[in-house]
Amino acid sequence: MSLVSDTSPARSDLPDLPDPASLSYEQARDELLLVVQRLEAGGEALETSLALWERGEALAARCQEWLDGARERLAAAQASDGTAGTTAAGGGFGEDVDA
Question: Which residue has the higher pLDDT, 36 or 92?
């Protein structure tokens, strides 16, 4: 799997990648892990490092979109069955402290 997109100039030496908006959470997360590994390993040219950083930012944003959407779906499901803000253990995120 390649790790940068060709959305900016000076990236012709790097393969094309799918738009992060088209990726599933798992695809974006897995590619993000590879980007981080390459950046941490070092040794890349400055342009490649910048391209990797930008790709990583886009992938992280995509992951956050998926997580936000999942959180909204969970809240909606809980609201529709009367369990908003609780978990199976009786407490959890979004719990109303005034209740």
Answer: 36
